[in-house]
Amino acid sequence: MLNTKKFTFFLGFFLSFTSLLSLPRPYDPDELGRVQILRSALALDTHYLLYLVEDFEGDRPWDFYRVDSFLAQTQFAASIAKSDAFIEETKLLKESGYPNLQNQTSFLLQSFVENPRLDHWEIRPKEPILLPLGMPIQGILWVYSEGHHINLSMGLSQKKSKDLYFDLGTLNFVGWRRLEFKINLPKENTRLIQSMSFPISFASFRLKSLASQKKGEFHLYFDNLCFVIDKRTFSYPGSEVNDTWGNKR
Question: How far is the C-alpha of 169 from the C-alpha of 121, rounded, in Å?
Answer without folding.
Answer: 15
